[in-house]
Each structure stands twice: as structure tokens, then as C-alpha cells.
Design brief:
By secondary structure, the protein is an alpha/beta fold. Among the domains are: 59 residues, Dna Ligase, domain 1, CATH 3.30.1490.300; 136 residues, Nucleotidyltransferase, domain 5 (2-Layer Sandwich). Helix content is 40%, strand content 30%.
Length: 341
């Protein structure tokens, strides 16, 4: 049994997952999911906070999860992530040098944030350098998570970003000699990571996701948000359904996301003229939009695949209703796999 479980506190849902490893195979041990209360974890109201902690407690209880140590992911929209190159230094020298570097890259005063860093890998060039992942989150946000964990009687073993969890959950797909891109389409943001030799070397966040797509359909067709969400999931870019009106409504949002993917590809080519991104892996609930993989493949002329952590690791005991929404479980799967791998 794994010592920790994964808890994904998303904008639209709360997911708890425990995965056990037996021999070389993985299986779901416990799983719980419920919608997130509307105000979410960022509300300042004690009443909202109580509703939220009760909702999380209910998910963990329904899953019958007994572990007290938990791995959690901070939403990418709430954290600052930057990958920088530093000279090859000892860990002590690096820690000292990064104190000065962080002021350049983090848009908040350092006394208002909690910062962390991780060595991603060394450059293969003659000028030896080290790639560093810088992460900063506001102390206010960290305090909210710590208070929530205290109320639930949980101990955070790991606090990381959604993209790090997603990278772990899809690692077998990106651990190749060629370069890959992960596009994780969440409810509020779309997060992009370029992965080279299995390591993240670039990461960006776009402030458009599933909610923006649903809102565009709702406004364009004059229908309720929930109905628009159902239509989005059922028809996506299908040109035959509703005379293609659903696809036309969400097209401007997709074009915007596509534009940022193109910019990332160009930026990568500028820095790495001899390398090429050969595969895009889609992740997140909005990546399940019917036809989106074909649309992106045609627009970018790059192979596009759907990244399903349960399939990638051959995880057993996946409920049928979860299989149909599997891409939205990649963050929590990555968190649950942290100790099981």
C-alpha cells in the first residue's frame, strides 16, 4: 500500500486517489470525486471555508482513504513557474545565487511568497549550465492549504504544481529521445510544457480553459451554462451537430490557445534549432472535446495523442464512469503515483 494519496482540489471538482503497486502492476485502491463548491478554496468567508473543508472531507470519506499523508497540487493559475539556466554550481552556491535571481522572475515581493526550486537537468553544451525550475506561491494561498490540511487531520507530504503532477502521470509517453509537448487543458487555464529527454525544459500557463469555452457556447447560443457544458462535451467540433454552431462558438477560444501553442513551438525552435517537437500529448478535462486532437494535428502538422495516465501505466480497477473522463484524472493520478512508482 502506498504511504500517501493524491488530492486534486480543482476549480470544478475535488478528486482523491490512492494507487497501490503489486509486483510490477498498479491498481486503484481508493477513489473519490465530487464537484467543488462554487466559491472554492480562495474565498475569504469562514462559512465558505467550512463548506469547502466539509466537501473535501466527504470526498476522502466516500473513498474510504485511511492514509494521513497526502500529495497535493497547487493550481497553475495561482502559482508562478519559471525555468531558468544557471551556471553549474554546488547546491549551496546555487541556493545563495537563486535568492538574487528570484527577484527578477517573481512578480510579487519575496516576503509575500513561499519559493521553492528544483534542478531539472544539466545542459549538454560546452558551457555547462543547470536548468532550474523556480516555483513561487503566495503565503496567503499556502496558508489556506495548510489550514485546510489541519482541519482534515492530513499531513502534506508534497506540495507541487499541476504540471509536475501531469508530467509524472504521462512520463512513459514523454520519456523519449525526441521532444514532446504536454498541453493540459484545465477548467481555468491551459498549461503547456515542452519535454526534452523526459525532462520539462519550458512551461507556460494560458488563462483560457474549459470554463471559457463553455461560456462562449452559452453566450453565442443563448443557452444556460450547464446546457452549454453538456453540448460541448457531447458535440465538440462536430460540424454536423447543430449545423456546426457549437464548433463555431468555441472556435475563437481554441484559436487563442492554438496561437500560444504555436508561439511555444517557435520559441523552442529558436533556442533549439536542431530539435523538433514530434508529439503533442493532450491532458485535462477539456482535452476530451470531440475532434480537438484532429483539429490540432491538422493545424500544427504534429502528431497529437490523448494522454491517459490509467492506460499509460496499465492501472487496474478503473471504474467505467472514470474511464470516460480519464484525461481529467491525470493530475490526481500523478500525485497518487508519486510514492507508488
Amino acid at each position: 500500500m502506498s504511504a500517501t494519496f493524491g488530492l486534486d482540489i480543482g476549480t470544478t471538482s475535488i478528486k482523491a486517489l490512492s494507487i497501490k503497486k503489486s509486483g510490477g502492476s498498479f491498481a486503484i485502491e481508493s477513489l473519490g470525486i465530487a464537484p467543488s463548491p462554487a466559491k472554492g478554496i480562495i474565498s475569504e468567508s469562514p462559512e465558505d471555508n467550512k463548506i469547502f473543508s466539509d466537501a473535501v472531507r466527504s470526498v476522502i470519506s466516500s473513498a474510504n482513504i485511511k492514509q494521513k499523508e497526502v500529495n497535493i497540487a497547487l493550481p497553475e493559475s495561482q502559482v508562478y513557474t519559471k525555468i531558468i539556466e544557471m551556471p553549474a554550481l554546488s547546491e549551496k552556491e546555487l541556493a545563495a545565487a537563486l535568492k538574487y535571481e528570484m527577484e527578477q522572475y517573481i512578480p510579487l515581493p519575496l516576503d509575500q511568497v513561499k519559493t521553492d526550486w528544483q534542478v531539472l537537468g544539466s545542459s549538454t553544451s560546452q558551457n555547462k549550465s543547470t536548468k532550474i525550475l523556480l516555483v513561487a506561491a503566495s503565503l496567503v494561498l499556502i496558508k489556506k492549504y495548510e489550514t485546510l490540511m489541519d482541519e482534515l487531520g492530513l499531513v502534506p507530504a508534497t506540495i507541487e504544481t499541476e504540471m509536475l503532477s501531469t508530467h509524472r502521470s504521462l512520463f512513459p509517453l514523454v520519456n523519449t529521445q525526441s521532444s514532446n509537448m504536454i498541453v493540459h487543458m484545465g477548467a481555468v487555464t491551459t498549461n503547456i510544457a515542452v519535454v526534452e529527454n523526459g525532462e520539462i525544459i519550458m512551461v507556460f500557463s494560458i488563462d483560457k480553459g474549459g470554463i471559457a469555452i463553455t461560456r462562449a457556447i452559452s453566450l453565442d447560443l443563448g443557452i444556460e451554462f450547464n446546457q452549454a457544458d453538456s453540448y460541448k462535451k457531447a458535440y465538440g467540433l462536430n460540424k454536423d451537430a447543430f449545423e456546426g454552431k457549437i464548433g463555431k462558438s468555441l472556435f475563437p477560444i481554441l484559436e487563442s490557445i492554438l496561437g500560444d501553442i504555436r508561439k511555444t513551438i517557435l520559441l523552442y525552435k529558436e533556442k533549439n534549432p536542431n530539435q523538433q517537437i514530434t508529439q503533442i500529448i493532450l491532458s485535462g478535462g477539456s482535452a476530451q472535446l470531440p475532434g480537438i486532437d484532429i483539429y490540432l494535428a491538422n493545424q500544427l502538422n504534429i502528431q497529437v495523442v490523448l494522454g491517459n495516465a490509467f492506460q499509460v501505466y496499465g492501472i487496474k480497477n478503473v471504474p467505467q464512469e472514470v474511464e470516460s473522463d480519464a484525461l481529467s484524472f491525470n493530475v490526481v493520478a500523478g500525485l497518487a503515483l508519486k510514492d507508488a512508482l
